[in-house]
Specification:
Blueprint: H1 14-49, H2 56-59, E1 115-123, E2 133-141, E3 145-150, E4 157-159, E5 162-168, E6 175-183, E7 189-197
């Protein structure tokens, strides 16, 4: 007859389960700490192997400049500017904006009166035969009315500002005067007189 041995095992109690859970948690925490430490070590190695950053002042050489400017754009304003540094102080010269640009308070100018540019004989009179006439020509600026008088005051006729006209010449006398009068809208006048004589050799 064989002997049979029966071994009875006890089921773990609540305390055993608690101890097992605590041990498992401790292992997980240990693994997490190891992972964090490894990551920190890798970052330290990367920082040590990277070259040190260069400062902005070492990367680019400092530039210096001197500049002067004379302001002649408005009436005699003069200025100068100088500077040194990375941007060259001479670029903004104080004389670029002359103080005379505005020209101060400009008073309205009154337009000038009429001007007789010329008044002359275009053809001399001939008292032999007929017609006995004289040719005059003129040009006037700034006039609204132009009149011609012969041998004294009182207009003979009205004309335009630029004319070439044939006018009478009385050969009973060797000399006659012709007065050109220009008048503008404000009543200002300009006058010019011509004295015309019969040429030598002419007769009545």
């Amino acid at each position: 007859m064989n002997d049979t041995t029966i071994v009875l095992r006890r089921r773990p109690g609540p305390r055993s389960w608690l101890a097992l859970g605590a041990a498992t948690a401790a292992v997980l925490v240990m693994l997490l700490l190891i992972a964090v430490a490894c990551q920190a070590a890798n970052r330290t190695d990367d920082d040590l192997s990277a070259p040190p950053p260069s400062s902005a002042s070492d990367a680019s050489p400092a530039a210096s400049g001197d500049g002067t400017g004379d302001g002649d754009s408005g009436g005699g304003g003069d200025g100068s500017g100088s500077g040194s540094g990375q941007t060259g102080g001479g670029q903004d010269a104080g004389g670029q904006d002359g103080g005379g640009q505005d020209g101060g308070d400009q008073q309205p100018t009154t337009p000038p009166g009429p001007v007789i540019e010329y008044f002359r004989v275009a053809q001399e009179p001939a008292c032999e035969g007929t017609p006995r006439e004289l040719v005059l020509e003129w040009r006037v600026a700034g006039a609204e009315r132009v009149t011609l008088s012969i041998d004294g005051p009182g207009p003979y006729a009205d004309y335009g500002p630029e004319e070439r006209q044939t006018v009478p010449f009385a050969c009973g006398e060797r000399r006659h005067t012709y007065l050109l009068t220009a008048t503008d809208a404000d009543g200002r006048t300009a006058t010019r007189e011509l004295a015309v004589e019969v040429p030598d050799g002419g007769g009545a």
